[in-house]
Each structure stands twice: as C-alpha cells, then as structure tokens.
C-alpha cells in the first residue's frame, strides 16, 4: 500500500450482536494497521460477547454462539487492542455512525478511555455518499 502517512492508520471492521451501540457487543474485530514506512500489521479476533448472538444477526455475518464460546471477551482483549490502536488514525466503512461508537462503548465497559479526539478519522461510507449522492434527485436519475 502506497500511502503518504505521518502517523499510522488502522483500517478496521467490527461484527456485532446487533446495531444498538449501548446494548450490543462485538463478536469479531479485524484491524489492518499501516505505518508511515509501509509496514503492515493485521490483528483479527473472534470475541465472546458474553450475551447470546441473535439468530437473525448470525445469519448476516455467519458468526454463531458456538463459534465464539471459547473466544476471549472484549475485556480480556481490551488492553492489547488499546495498545495496538494507540497513536493511529482510524478508517473503515460506516465507522463514524457505528464501528467507532461501538468500539468506544466496549472500551468503556472494559474500564478503558479510548480517546478519539486527537485522531483523524476516514469513513469510506461518507466519501462514497459524497460521490454518489443519496437524495431524491439521485434516486430519480438512478
């Protein structure tokens, strides 16, 4: 990947038990961290959410209770994930509305303050919607 970076950037995606940030939990996290020198590190983990995964949610992402029953909880992973993401800008698809708020909430439940104030955030969904308008005129044209 040829990026002009001043700080590392972490591209990440979450799978969860649902879409409610305050009550749902992460069941999988995957991160690709790219450093200014081009080095890449990948970290992926299934996460035991400590609550049942609804069948309709499992049907979407393919992760079932049986798949995560022996996986570490987010609290167990939290210190390592916090360290891995330390100093990195954040990027992904729909991260502003879902992934970052859910990640912040999970860190809070684990007793860790995950500060995003001094990070640049790149949301590919926001860029896509700026390029491909989501309004009545665009729907009519489509």
Question: How is this structure best described in words?
Answer:
This protein has 142 residues and is of the alpha/beta class. The chain has one domain: Ribonuclease H-like superfamily/Ribonuclease H (Nucleotidyltransferase, domain 5), CATH 3.30.420.10. Helices cover 37% and strands 22% of the residues. It is built from 6 helices and 5 strands, in the order βββαααβαβαα. The protein has a 5-stranded mixed beta sheet with strand order 3-2-1-4-5. A hairpin with a 5-residue loop joins strand 2 (26-34) and strand 3. It is globular.
| Poorly predicted spans | none
Distance between the termini: 33 Å
User: What's the overall average pLDDT, rounded?
Assistant: 93
CATH fourth-tier homologous superfamily: Ribonuclease H-like superfamily/Ribonuclease H
Strand order of the largest sheet: 3-2-1-4-5
Please report the first level of CATH classification, the CATH class.
Alpha Beta
Q: What is the third-level CATH name, the topology?
A: Nucleotidyltransferase, domain 5
What's the helix-strand series?
EEEHHHEHEHH
Q: Report the sheet with the most strands, covering strand number, pairing sense and barrel closure.
A: 5 strands, mixed
The amount of beta strand, in percent, is 15-25%
Number of strands: 5
Number of helices: 6
Residues in helix, %: 25-40%
Radius of gyration: 16 Å
CATH architecture annotation name = 2-Layer Sandwich
| Secondary-structure class | alpha/beta
């Amino acid at each position: 990947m040829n990026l002009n970076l001043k700080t590392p950037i972490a591209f990440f995606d979450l799978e969860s038990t649902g879409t409610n940030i305050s009550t749902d939990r992460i069941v999988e996290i995957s991160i690709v961290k790219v450093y200014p020198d081009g080095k890449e590190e990948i970290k992926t983990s299934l996460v035991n959410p400590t609550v049942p995964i609804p069948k309709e949610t499992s049907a979407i992402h393919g992760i079932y209770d049986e798949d995560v029953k022996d996986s570490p909880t987010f609290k167990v992973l939290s210190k390592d994930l916090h360290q891995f993401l330390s100093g990195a800008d954040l990027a992904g698809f729909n991260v502003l509305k879902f992934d970052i708020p859910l990640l912040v909430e999970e860190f809070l439940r684990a007793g860790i303050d995950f500060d995003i104030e001094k990070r640049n955030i790149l949301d590919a969904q926001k860029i896509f919607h700026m390029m491909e308008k989501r309004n009545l005129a665009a729907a009519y044209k489509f």
